[in-house]
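Figure 3 (text version): C-alpha cells given as input.
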C-alpha cells in the first residue's frame, strides 16, 4: 500500500510539474490578426492625397524600397514614369501596354514584360524578373493601391499624372467573408512560400531569388530557434554581406503560429 501511495504521489507531482512547465515555461506564440489596411475615403481624396497615399504604399505594404534603393538590388524608381515610352519601344519589351500609365501598371503585375538590363534572374539573360506580382502573394495590393503607386511614380518623375483616383472597391463574393473572419491556413509550406513571395529574394523550394541568403541548406548551419527568430525579427541577426531592413518585419503578423512552426521545421530540415 505504501509503494502504491508513493507511486501515486510521484505521478501527480510529475504531471503537475509538466503542466506548469507547459503553461508557464514554454514561450507562447500567439497568432496576430492580419495587418489592418489603411482606411481611406477615396471619394473625398484629392490627387495630392492620393499621391501621398501611393508613397506610403511604396514604403510600407508594397515593400518596394527593400529592393528599389541605392544598394542597387533593383532599378531606382525616380524616373521610371518618363522612360516608360523608351521601354515600350525597346525590342526587348514583350508586354501589351500601349502608353506610359499602362506600362507602369504592367510593371507592377507582370514585371517580366520588360526587365531592365542587369536586373533579371540569373541565367535568364534578363528575360525574367525576380520581382513578384504585387497584386497577389503576400503583398496583394488592391486596385486603389496600385493606382496610387502609379500616381506617386508619375509625380516623383515630374510627369503628368494621368491615373484617376480608383473608385471604392467591393470584395468579391468568392474571396471575402464576414468582417474579421480569419483566412484559411496554408495547406503546405510550398503554398506559403509562393503566396508570400519568399522566392523573390531567397533560393528556396523551386525558387531562385538572389537578393537574400540562400536557404536551400540553411538547416545544416542554423537551428530552429535561430530560424524562428530570423522570421519574427529579421534584423536580430544580419547575415554577412547583407543589410538591415531587407526583409519585411511583419511575418509574425501574417502567419498563424502553426504556419510559423511549419515553416521553421521545413527550413530546419533543409540540410
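Below: residues designed for each position.
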Amino acid at each position: 500500500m505504501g509503494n502504491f501511495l508513493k507511486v501515486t504521489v510521484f505521478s501527480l507531482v510529475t504531471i503537475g510539474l509538466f503542466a506548469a512547465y507547459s503553461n508557464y515555461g514554454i514561450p507562447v506564440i500567439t497568432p496576430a490578426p492580419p495587418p489592418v489596411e489603411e482606411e481611406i475615403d477615396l471619394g473625398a481624396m484629392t490627387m495630392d492625397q492620393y499621391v501621398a497615399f501611393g508613397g506610403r504604399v511604396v514604403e510600407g505594404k508594397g515593400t518596394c524600397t527593400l529592393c528599389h534603393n541605392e544598394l542597387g538590388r533593383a532599378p531606382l524608381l525616380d524616373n521610371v514614369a518618363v522612360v516608360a515610352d523608351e521601354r515600350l519601344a525597346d525590342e526587348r519589351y514583350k508586354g501589351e501596354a500601349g502608353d506610359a500609365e499602362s506600362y507602369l501598371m504592367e510593371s507592377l503585375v507582370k514585371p517580366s514584360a520588360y526587365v531592365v538590363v542587369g536586373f533579371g534572374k540569373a541565367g535568364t539573360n534578363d528575360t525574367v524578373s525576380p520581382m513578384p506580382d504585387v497584386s497577389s502573394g503576400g503583398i496583394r495590393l488592391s486596385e486603389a493601391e496600385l493606382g496610387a503607386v502609379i500616381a506617386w511614380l508619375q509625380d516623383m518623375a515630374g510627369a503628368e499624372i494621368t491615373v484617376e483616383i480608383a473608385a471604392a472597391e467591393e470584395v468579391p463574393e468568392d474571396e471575402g467573408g464576414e468582417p474579421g473572419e480569419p483566412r484559411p491556413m496554408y495547406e503546405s509550406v510550398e503554398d506559403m512560400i509562393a503566396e508570400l513571395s519568399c522566392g523573390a529574394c531567397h533560393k528556396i523550394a523551386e525558387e531562385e531569388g538572389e537578393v537574400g541568403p540562400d536557404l536551400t541548406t540553411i538547416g545544416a548551419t542554423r537551428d530552429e530557434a535561430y530560424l524562428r527568430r530570423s522570421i519574427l525579427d529579421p534584423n536580430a541577426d544580419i547575415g554577412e554581406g547583407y543589410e538591415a531592413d531587407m526583409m519585411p518585419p511583419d511575418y509574425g503578423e501574417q502567419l498563424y503560429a502553426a504556419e510559423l512552426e511549419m515553416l521553421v521545421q521545413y527550413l530546419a530540415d533543409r540540410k
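The chain has a mean pLDDT of 81.
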